Amino acid sequence: MSESNQTEPTEILHSDDGPVPFASPASDTNAPYVTTPQDYDAILLAGFGGPEGQDDVIPFLRNVTAGRGIPDERLEEVATHYRHFGGISPINEHNKQLRAAIEAQLRDRDIDLPVYWGNRNWTPYLEDTVQQAADNGHTRLLAIATSAYSSYSSCRQYREDFARALIATGLAGKVTIDKVRQFFDHPGFVTPFREGVEAALQDFADQRLAPEEVRVLFATHSIPTTDAARSGPEKLSLGEGGAYAAQHRAVGGVTMDQLREASPAWAETQWELVYQSRSGPASQPWLEPDVCDRIAELPDEGIKAVVIVPLGFLSDHMEVLWDLDEEAIEAAEEAGLRAVRTQTPGVHPEFVAGLVDLIQERIAAVAPVDRPAMTDLGPWYDVCRPGCCENVRRGFSPAAAGLVP
Question: Which domain holds residue 118?
Fold first, then answer.
């Protein structure tokens, strides 16, 4: 949860100067939350993308690391994770399932909106998807990025992807793309994690482990500390790790608070935020502690079991299957700890319903006070604020769904 000396998103209600490029009329007023209802033609589901065979792996990794000058020899080291699973990342299949689930939920609510799906790093590419939508006469798009938190790679880069797609296709000025708010503390996102932790804790209790002998590790992707410090708007002061770390801490905290209310025995079970999937040079500071390093230390603290919660991820893609199911579970075995990795939201009914709630919220321009948010940090903004989530290495590039820069 946010601390008393921090500025909460709902307190920044004024408009900042500056344009909101590529936006619908309802979203170009500079205000953080829309106040005018807006009809949309279609939903745009934006994903990261992943290889779908051994021959795709290196080209895919070249796309991911474009502009960094990383040689194929170094990429091949990362490629071993994908090659372990036949060169196929499950992320595309998960997004197909998510798209179908959103479409079904929209039909159940009598909302007549098609759902298009496009990726940043692999087919179907966003440029092709946006062009297809425009060819079909759909020019007012509402986007859902498959990431719940604020940082460059999990929010602003998707907004830059939207701008790039519109510019590359020549559709800027003809097609608008808005984006639903970051949904890290929406009940539909949090519920699957809470259910997973509850089931794991109960299982360890059934194995006669004392609550204080179990540690809950909420795991998310590590990012460079300089990028983390710039996550979220410039006007927020959320402590070390910026909005990215603060949002994860808040969700972990509210999840455990709910479980402790349900069962006071779990008050003795401690939790912490850990990081995984670091990929930068050793000389560059990244968010810590690493999940495997932390697991190795826990036996000396009297811990006998760990619950590993993939809090930063929507689905069981490669960095869950490899970094947690392989490396973190192996670290637990080496440390003599019992371990379980809990579920990701995937196509959990509450999660899918929550995404469609966000669509309806944006269409109706629901007031912030009436929007569901489980932490003091929410609800997050409809229109990203100035200076939000700068990429330290690249600086600012054109981006949709936010103020310039």
Answer: 9-183+348-370
